[in-house]
Amino acid sequence: MENETWYDRVIKVLEEEARTNPEKFNPKKMKPSEECVAITEHFEGFSPVAYLDPVGILTLGHGFIHGVKPGDTITYEESKERLLKELDRDYAHAVRVHVKVPLTQGMFDALTCFTFNLGGGALANSTLLRKLNQKDYKGAAREFDRWVYAGGKKLNGLVRRRKAERAMFEGNDWREYA
After folding, report:
1. Is-above-0.85 flag for pTM?
2. Which of 1, 38, 118, 136 would you label with 87, given CA atoms 20 to 30 Å apart?
3. Active-site residue numbers?
4. Considering the domain 6-18+35-44+75-177, what is its CATH architecture?
5. At 54, is the secondary structure helix, strand, or coil?
6. Higher pLDDT, 173 or 9
């Protein structure tokens, strides 16, 4: 179909293929892909020394905030290992717990990156999740655009990140916004 949108394609795939291969689209069975690691690593950046982020939160490595103290340091290798572990254990886990509908791998990865940045509580209480769990995939995708503020200020970095996450969620190349 010529005028078929990403939403139409996703719904078609999720409805047709989820019946024949339900495990493939079951978020409870998914793990972050290499693309999830790449997008998260890109937007978090890396700092070997603890620093204050734009809203004054002490941050280290690839965007870690838990357990970080002034003067803390980390190597790139240590940070990458921690990123891989925490992405799956904490942030993808939050997606697995809260999402009740079939997802593509891109959707799962976008939600995991989003949750890494904002936390599991933000995902759990979001309109994005509510719409998604109502199978309003299109409405859920639009919700990414609302999460561009930190400390009450609209940040260009968050605007780009959310566009990239939304692109990934919709099955498009996120690198256009990198």
Report:
1. yes
2. 136
3. 44, 53
4. Orthogonal Bundle (1.10)
5. coil
6. 173
Can you say how many angstroms the Cα of residue 66 is from the centroid of all Cα atoms in its chain? 18
The β-bridge partners of 154 are 149
Vertex 56 angle, CA 80 and 109, to 5°: 40
Which residue from 153, 90, 87, 157 is spatially nearest to 121, judged by alpha carbons? 90
Tokens of 35: 């693309």
**Dihedral angle sign, alpha carbons of residues 144, 136, 2, 23:** positive
For the CA atoms of 10, 25, 164, 149, the dihedral, rounded to the nearest 10 degrees, stands at: 110
Question: Do the beta carbons of residue 43 and residue 157 sit within 8 Å?
Answer: yes
pLDDT tens figures, 143-160: 999 999 998 999 999 999
Q: What sections of the chain are H helices per DSSP?
A: 6-20, 34-44, 76-86, 93-98, 105-118, 120-124, 127-133, 137-143, 156-169
75 with 20: CB under 8 angstroms? no
